[in-house]
């Protein structure tokens, strides 16, 4: 009797203590409306600051506005774009981890992005079943992501494309060596043409000869595809933010996106249709052992869980997302190597070990995995300083405590990894290009939620391994 009474008192005391602790924690959490940040004049929103010629910010330089807001408001910022539309910017890697590690049962990671592209595709149900990987959320997104990633994300599938990647890249480097002028004024179109060629070869088993003189002309198929992808990507942020008047009538920004997408869609449909003409014949060869699957498209066409509408959407997504992302990444890596001749020399020595005779030797998968460690460090350090995006976007699936503030479910949160990766609190000599910080012998202790150029978790870039392989091969061949 006495023992049970003691246990009862201990239990009561424990409950009271835990409740009081919880109360203290809740009292220390500040409300959402106290998160610092710009609200615009009279609370009407800060969107005007992004209007060219009027505001001080630009959608083309979000890292600069991100740095400015960090200096003014600190590691968590609430920016009201227009009344009722907030973005919470996060700079602290612990807050970033809290958002990206959300494992709410039955809920998939969501984001608000490519909203105008989603409208374009939903208005065309004869071509698309969904808005595609970039714009779709929830179970609809997971149904197509889980099927499409089988051919695009698995290490073995990516390795199977290495011989073709190396062959085309060797042709590209040879074409650069044969140019009449020693100095190329703008290398971006050439890099983009290589990435377009690789995408079309891996996705459709089609050679466009994108870096030939004919295809480098302004009105060629390759040039128009690259231009359409760039126009679409430039239209995403202006149509995602603000009042989104394009939902009610066709604005100039939406018109640009529509026209660009119409051309990309037409090309995607033609490439898929071309493959369908010979698909049955290829299937017979595959069954007899006289043919191997040579493209992602063949893999997808054999998948009973994918409809033709899904495959056309994925083809359009690859053409849209795969060209300029890899091209800008490669360009920044070459830029940093130019500014750092010691790093360039170390990469050259490594390339010579892997390719003692660059015109005869092939890059083997084993060598790329185990012997190209410095090349991988160069790429990672370049992505630290100049990632593809400023950070990762999410819509909160549940209430969260971030930076000591309560942030409600449904809030749009965007991480500011680019800004954080240039801070001394997280990196030694943060603005310097030092690939050695990623080498095993001299590796720095880095929070894993700082450098996230391909996103994180289920929603990370579906073609990450493919993109990295293509860039590594080009760097080794070019150097």
UniProtKB/TrEMBL annotation:
<dbReference type="InterPro" id="IPR001128">
    <property type="entry name" value="Cyt_P450"/>
</dbReference>
<dbReference type="InterPro" id="IPR017972">
    <property type="entry name" value="Cyt_P450_CS"/>
</dbReference>
<dbReference type="InterPro" id="IPR050479">
    <property type="entry name" value="CYP11_CYP27_families"/>
</dbReference>
<keyword id="KW-0349">Heme</keyword>
<keyword id="KW-0479">Metal-binding</keyword>
<protein>
    <submittedName>
        <fullName>CYP302a1</fullName>
    </submittedName>
</protein>
<feature type="binding site" description="axial binding residue">
    <location>
        <position position="461"/>
    </location>
    <ligand>
        <name>heme</name>
    </ligand>
</feature>
<keyword id="KW-0560">Oxidoreductase</keyword>
<dbReference type="GO" id="GO:0016705">
    <property type="term" value="F:oxidoreductase activity, acting on paired donors, with incorporation or reduction of molecular oxygen"/>
</dbReference>
<dbReference type="InterPro" id="IPR002401">
    <property type="entry name" value="Cyt_P450_E_grp-I"/>
</dbReference>
<comment type="similarity">
    <text>Belongs to the cytochrome P450 family.</text>
</comment>
<keyword id="KW-0408">Iron</keyword>
<keyword id="KW-0503">Monooxygenase</keyword>
<dbReference type="GO" id="GO:0020037">
    <property type="term" value="F:heme binding"/>
</dbReference>
<dbReference type="Pfam" id="PF00067">
    <property type="entry name" value="p450"/>
</dbReference>
<dbReference type="GO" id="GO:0004497">
    <property type="term" value="F:monooxygenase activity"/>
</dbReference>
<dbReference type="GO" id="GO:0005506">
    <property type="term" value="F:iron ion binding"/>
</dbReference>
<dbReference type="InterPro" id="IPR036396">
    <property type="entry name" value="Cyt_P450_sf"/>
</dbReference>
